[in-house]
């Protein structure tokens, strides 16, 4: 009878394409994963992988074996997880990635309540403006918007990511307010260059009637971070298109003014992403449910919507 560790090491190595990535996913060392796979090959008297210094590929026998065990292995892992969770508390390191502006503004303030509710979970939270590889980098979850949904990743929508046009009272003093998105081009613009593409994206504003208009801000100032865009607007340097969630505290304090209140850019949803719909660790499951609970309680979906004023 093959051990579960050997079968898991084989299946994850095949899925991720390397012993190192499988080791990060399983919480083992690459050497341990390699030994487990070698033990499985010795027991079956079959070579399951073609190995080289640069790649790890399944042999024909390895492909057949993976197909034959994959569903059974997931069912077995699910049964073990259910039994383990039925009498235990959520525990372990919860590794999370999120953007600094949104994460520090909205997710970090949830932490005291979360830790009080789940004292055995130890947060390890990274604040970074990039899309992480959840599986290869060993993250439990990530929060953000506009991410490509890779195979095996689940996205749960939290709220809309609507961009709105904002500027400070000082900047707007003595200037005529724009009446349509086209009028924004007459004002100083604070643009953001995408870290992923290196380009300044072109935006399309819409209203509740279904009208759409392209918007082109002057590139008076160009930055590469949404927090810098917001700070530049607060300093009175011009107009920026930023996520309403990032602008909200300053709109409520009066430091920023929303231009064109009936118009917004739909940048998709803000979501929480995690790996695997079936074998979600209990620590991850309770965190996802907790974040959804807080978003509903604080009415963030409504408050973040650019369509609601």
From TrEMBL:
The record places domain HTH lysR-type at 14-59
Q: PROSITE patterns this protein is in? A: HTH_LYSR (PS50931)
Spell out the InterPro entries in the cross-references.
LysR-type_TF_proteobact-type (IPR058163), LysR_HTH_N (IPR000847), LysR_subst-bd (IPR005119), WH-like_DNA-bd_sf (IPR036388), WH_DNA-bd_sf (IPR036390)
Q: What does this protein do?
A: Transcriptional regulator of the ttuABCDE tartrate utilization operon.
| Family listed | Belongs to the LysR transcriptional regulatory family.
What's in the keyword line of the UniProt record? Answer: DNA-binding, Transcription, Transcription regulation
User: GO biological process: any one?
Assistant: DNA-templated transcription
Determine if Iron is one of this entry's keywords. no
Q: What is this protein called?
A: HTH-type transcriptional regulator TtuA
Report which residue ranges the record marks as coiled coil.
none
GO MF, one annotated term: sequence-specific DNA binding
Q: Which organism is it from?
A: Neorhizobium lilium
